[in-house]
Amino acid sequence: MNFVRFVALAGMLVLTSTAAHAQTADPSGDWRGPLTVGAIHLRLGMHLGATSTIDSPDQGAFGMPAQMTTTGRHVTVAVPSIGAVFEGDVSADGAQLVGQWRQSGQDFPLTLERGAYAALNRPQTPHAPFPYRAEEVGYDNAQRPGVHLAGTLTIPEGRGPFAAVLLITGSGAQDRNETLMGHQPFLVLADYLSRRGFAVLRVDDRGMGGSTGATPNDTTADFATDVEAGVAFLRTRHDIDPARISLIGHSEGGLIAPMVAARDPRIASIVLWAGPGVRGADVMMEQLRASMRASGAPDAAITTAMLRQHAVMDALLTAPDETTAHTALDSVFASIGNPPPAAQLNMLTSPWFRAFVAYDPAPALRGLRMPVLALLGAKDVQVVATQNEPALRAALAGDREASVVVLPGLNHLFQTAGTGAVSEYAQIDETISPDALKTMGDWLVAHDRGRAAR
């Protein structure tokens, strides 16, 4: 989903001068305000004038071209790249824009005030100089013609060959840093691990940055072949030890890492960072319950939402193809009386989503015979620890080198959290908890030493 993904909250604000525009209908200048959907708020910034742009700081989106037209106090701002339009009016005192944000067939009330947002505080984002070198790399996926992957390989100082870690992003198209809400988790993690002696490869997903080959039919299984291409690339390099290549998968990446490792016993070890242990449909059910609780929803509303979610999941699980899934969901939503916009329905019936809700990670996990660290955040509302910890322990029971750890106080990004709600992600300055970084780093170092000593 683009732009309005409903995954962040407003932060601190800095006001610019409003005096020049007070008592005027001229909308030129900077505007800012929260776009609210239920308990979720996304900071939205508009820079209006002869050349206009839109920012969504909480999603790391800046400078999106926009087109402004005015009629008296009425203002229309179109953002063609994301299919969105704002329509509103300048208030009588010239200090506010009051109107509606329209996107994906839905309208959201939006009131903007004059001013600009402060820069996000992300103290863990690394800055040069670095005690390692960074190399821009690219390679093809031999299993999927037309898929070219681009990324960054950070390499420690020294001669090598080095142990390497390949980072695997979560769901949705992500860049190599897994940028979201002003955070760059993979940049922080790569910097941390390279300082501890690991070469780290982080890669743009298909259709992002320098990577190509994205199609509407891509599924998690397809993305697993991209990871296999990355492992094959690392094994060609003289500065990488081909016997010491590990995987770290975040969220959906935590499904992909076991897929790859189960087919490739040469993988040295894997870390599942908030990786599910249960079927996707079950993940979605518990995610809805936990998210609504974290946002303070009443029990009655949660019960109603869960019943509807269950009907949606059942329809998707029993539909053999996209057309049947569309028909089944049309029936479900007709009975509910609340049909979603076409864009949302298309997402629910997409090959990726239907494959995700049906996928059970247990068989791949049961087949692993290598060091595995499965980490969960106790306050994660997206991959809920109380649901996934027992499932991961059961699936990994046959692997003597596997361990499952629940880290207290951490959310889905492994930030130190309050409620764990998605709406907190952008508000938290911390990108990854130092304890989580150390847990992953210490475990990788210990298992790499054991392998290197063999």
Class inferred from helices and paired strands: alpha+beta
Shape: globular
Percent of residues in beta strands? 25-35%
Number of helices: 11
Say how many strands there are.
18
Strand line-up across the major sheet: 2-3-4-5-6-7-8-9
Instruction: Calculate the mean pLDDT score and round it.
Output: 90
Which value, in Å, is the CA radius of gyration?
A: 23 Å
Low-confidence residue ranges: 1-23
| Largest sheet: number of strands, sense, barrel closure | 8 strands, antiparallel, barrel
Share of helical residues: 25-40%
Terminal residue distance: 46 Å
Encode the helix/strand succession as letters: EEEEEEEEEEEEEHEHEHEHHHHHHEHEH
Give structural notes.
The protein is α+β, with helices and mostly antiparallel strands and 454 residues long. It contains eleven helices and 18 strands. An eight-stranded antiparallel β-barrel has the order 2-3-4-5-6-7-8-9. The chain has an eight-stranded mixed β-sheet with strand order 11-12-14-13-15-16-17-18, sandwiched between helices. It is globular and about 75 Å long. Mean pLDDT is 90; it is low at 1-23.
